[in-house]
Amino acid sequence: MQKPIIILNYKTYLESTGDRGRELTWAARDVMQETGVRIIVCPQTPELFHHKGYGIEVFSQHIDPIEPGSHTGHVLAQALIHCGVTGSLINHSEDRMPLPDIKKCVEICRKNGLTSVVCAESIEKVREVSQLKPDFVAIEPPELIGSGIPVSKADPDIVRDSVKAVTDPEVKVLCGAGISKGEDVKAALELGTVGVLLASGVVKAKDPKAALRELVAFK
C-alpha cells in the first residue's frame, strides 16, 4: 500500500500554540524522517514564521483572495511565502468561503507556486471545487470533525463517491474528519484517497509523537 500524505491542522488549540506548537512541529518532522511518510503541518497564521526551517512542509490554515495592496487584516500569498509556507488550506468547514473566493485563492496559489488544499463538506461540493483544479480536495463532513468517528467508517460511501466525483487525475482527494488511528488512514487509502487531513487526534493527544507514529504504522 502507498505511503499516505498526512496534513496536520493545528487549528487554534492551546496544545499547538507557542512553544507547544513548535514542539509539535519537531515531533512531526522526526516521525516524517523516521518513516518516510510525507507530513505537512498547518500552524496558526501569526506563528508561521516560527516554524520555518524545521525541515518539514508548512501550510497556512487560510489564505485570502487578494493581491498586494490595501487589504488590512487579510492573509497575502507573498507574506506566507516569506514565512516559509508552501501551501494553504482553503474553505475549511470552520472558515467557509463563497465559490468565487475559493476560485481566486486556488488561482493565487497556482500563480505563486503554493499547494492548494480545498476542503469540501459533500460529494456535490467535491465535484464543484475539483473543477477549479486545486492540488487536493479534502472531503470533510462537518458533523464528524473532532468527533473521533472517522468518516471512512461512518460513511465510507461519501469518501468513495468523492473520489469518483473528481475526474481530473491531477486533483488528488484527501479524507478528513474524525481521523485518529492508523486503521483510519488505511481505510482512507483503501477507499481511493491519497491521505488524510486531521487535527485533534494528534494535537490533543497525550503524546503527539506517539500518536503520529501510530497513525502511519498500519500495514
TrEMBL record:
Pfam families: TIM. The keyword Nucleus does not apply. One of its GO terms (molecular function) is triose-phosphate isomerase activity. Its EC number is 5.3.1.1. It catalyses: D-glyceraldehyde 3-phosphate = dihydroxyacetone phosphate. HAMAP family: TIM_A. Involved in the gluconeogenesis. Catalyzes stereospecifically the conversion of dihydroxyacetone phosphate (DHAP) to D-glyceraldehyde-3-phosphate (G3P). This is Triosephosphate isomerase. It comes from Methanocella conradii (strain DSM 24694 / JCM 17849 / CGMCC 1.5162 / HZ254).
